[in-house]
Design goal:
mainly alpha
């Protein structure tokens, strides 16, 4: 029984490993199904693709990088970044 489960899992990984590149389409596809708005779906996918192609990082990685305090930040920028960090800790969204 254990061997059968192991073989099934290994085969699943091998078969589905080619699907990793198509996972990026899941977000916009979900948006299309739930809202039915094709324009919103196209803009969502297109903007994510442009950001990833231009910067080499995902939109989430870019936002995380922006939240890191820098020496040349103004007081307002430091305040906003500190408040975002505090709010994330309160909401437990640090991961």
């Amino acid at each position: 029984m254990i061997l059968k489960k192991l073989i099934i899992r290994i085969l699943s990984i091998v078969i589905l490993s080619g699907c990793a590149q198509n996972v990026a389409i899941l977000g916009p596809a979900y948006t299309l199904v739930t809202t039915g708005n094709m324009v919103q779906t196209g803009l969502s996918y297109g903007s994510n693709a442009v950001i990833s192609k231009t910067t080499g990082k995902s939109a989430t990685q870019n936002i995380k990088e922006l939240l890191i305090p820098k020496k040349d930040d103004t007081e307002f920028q430091k305040l906003v970044k500190r408040r975002i960090t505090e709010t994330r800790k309160k909401l437990n969204l640090t991961k």
